[in-house]
């Protein structure tokens, strides 16, 4: 495929050309012009997709050059004007970049425009289908009315970089009062985080979702008595049957609303935040345990939390936990990037005025 | 190399700042280079690492398997990195834990 042409108009273009070439992964055909006249001639000849014009040129003002390029209807180029300290009347360009603008901002804009010119970040059919499937699998929120007034449930799934390795599920069990059932009423659920954000991690996440659902149904039906047995069984399944090795930080839970208890079993990183009545802050409950897939010969422990004074429970993956810690007093150093992966969660609000 | 220094048969992996999803590809490439240069052991130095996400942990587990657990160790974990290692019981990797 023919590479889009970028023309750099600058007195000393070499350094800028190198930086652009590196930033665009050698994806553009780069050319330079040392003055305005050469720039206008090369525009006709090369039909560039992007022209970057520095204001300080030896023959003309860069604004004149940019405007002349924009005026010529033969040119379809996106025109950048750089090094601006002011703007002459009637100057034309598509991007006006002031003198001293951080290099990273310039490159970010250029990369964005370049991707648009290349047709944007088009996903292949497999990825498109997987995204639809991922969101089809997302369990709906439960309102207070759905649960008979005792609690409500909401959730957040992080879609970072097309496909998330995160997964979550919950099932609300409300027995018919007239029908005898051994199943305990309440909310059964889990949250996990397969590493990666691509079709491979998506495949692992879908398999993990299926396996965890299966074993949680068995727990619900009384095949497994405790959640640590569930986690151990899932660990065995993952180690025996997953094609590639993977680690799956997971947290499984059962909220017994009649008994006012939360039973949970943590396997690695996902955390549990609890907000008590009359407390403004959420308290993090320490969950020290191995991740699923780490080792065959490890064990887990089921824990129980009394809910009689709890207003909110939040199960979160590590990304959201890091973001929450960032805003807390315990953050030792601010993050130097905008983290937006692994920010999945299940939020449960408990209503104690329920009759 | 940006992340790995070779000291005899040991590759010392030190990530400045965030050991996260966006860096694992470059770290993997350097790790492979170190192995090709004869490194059979890996020491992870977390002194200047401020964040370790689940992808970073997964990569370290892969490296640990590749060099064999006995040839893998870590040190100087603190703050959020130490917390995440503790949460996932991986602080047993640390040779300098109390």
TrEMBL record, chain A:
The modification 4-aspartylphosphate is found at residue 54. This is SpoIIE family protein phosphatase. The keyword Phosphoprotein applies. CDD domains: REC. One of its GO terms (biological process) is phosphorelay signal transduction system. SMART domains: REC. The keyword Phosphoprotein applies. It comes from Anaerovibrio slackiae. Residues 5-114 form the Response regulatory domain. Pfam families: Response_reg (PF00072), SpoIIE (PF07228). Keywords: Phosphoprotein.
TrEMBL record, chain B:
It comes from the Bacteria. SUPFAM superfamilies: SpoIIaa-like (SSF52091). Residues 6-88 form the STAS domain. InterPro entries: STAS_dom, STAS_dom_sf. This is STAS domain-containing protein. The lineage of its organism: Bacteria, Bacillati, Bacillota, Negativicutes, Selenomonadales.
């Amino acid at each position: 495929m023919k590479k889009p042409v970028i023309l750099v108009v600058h007195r000393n273009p070499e350094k800028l050309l190198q930086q652009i070439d590196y930033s665009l992964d050698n994806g553009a055909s780069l050319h330079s012009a040392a003055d305005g006249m050469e720039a206008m001639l090369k525009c006709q000849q090369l039909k560039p997709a992007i022209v970057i014009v520095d204001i300080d040129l030896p023959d003309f003002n860069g604004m004149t050059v940019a405007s002349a390029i924009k005026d010529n209807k033969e040119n379809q180029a996106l025109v950048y004007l750089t090094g601006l300290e002011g703007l002459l009347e009637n100057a034309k360009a598509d991007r006006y970049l002031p003198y001293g603008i951080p290099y990273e901002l310039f490159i970010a804009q250029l990369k964005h425009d370049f991707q648009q010119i290349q047709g944007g970040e088009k996903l292949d059919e497999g990825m498109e289908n997987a995204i639809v499937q991922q969101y089809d699998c997302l369990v709906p929120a439960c309102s207070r009315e759905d649960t008979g007034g005792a609690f409500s449930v909401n959730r957040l799934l992080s879609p970072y970089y097309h496909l998330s390795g995160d997964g979550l599920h919950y099932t609300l069990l409300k027995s018919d009062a007239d029908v005898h059932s051994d199943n305990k009423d309440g909310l059964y659920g889990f949250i996990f985080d397969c590493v990666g954000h691509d079709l491979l991690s998506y495949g692992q996440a879908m398999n993990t979702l299926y396996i965890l659902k299966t074993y949680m149904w068995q727990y619900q039906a009384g095949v497994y008595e405790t959640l640590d047995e569930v986690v151990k069984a899932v660990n065995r399944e993952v180690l025996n049957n997953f094609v590639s090795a993977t680690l799956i930080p997971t947290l499984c839970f059962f909220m017994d609303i009649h008994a006012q208890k939360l039973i949970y079993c943590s396997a690695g990183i996902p955390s549990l935040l609890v907000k008590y009545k009359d407390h403004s802050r959420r308290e993090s409950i320490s969950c020290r345990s191995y991740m699923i897939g780490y080792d065959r010969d490890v064990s887990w422990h089921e824990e129980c939390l009394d809910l009689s004074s709890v207003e909110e429970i939040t199960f979160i993956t590590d990304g959201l936990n890091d973001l929450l810690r960032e805003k807390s007093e315990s953050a030792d150093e601010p993050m130097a990037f905008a983290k937006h992966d692994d920010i999945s969660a299940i939020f449960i609000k408990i209503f104690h005025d329920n009759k | 190399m940006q992340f790995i220094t070779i000291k005899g048969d040991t590759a010392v992996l030190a990530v400045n700042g965030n050991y996260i999803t966006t860096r694992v590809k470059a770290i993997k490439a350097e790790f492979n280079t170190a192995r090709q240069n004869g490194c059979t052991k890996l020491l992870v130095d977390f002194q200047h690492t401020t964040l370790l996400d689940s992808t970073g942990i997964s990569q370290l587990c892969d490296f640990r398997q590749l060099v064999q657990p006995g040839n893998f160790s870590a040190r100087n974990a603190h703050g959020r990195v130490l917390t995440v290692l503790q949460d996932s019981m991986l602080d047993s990797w640390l040779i300098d834990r109390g």
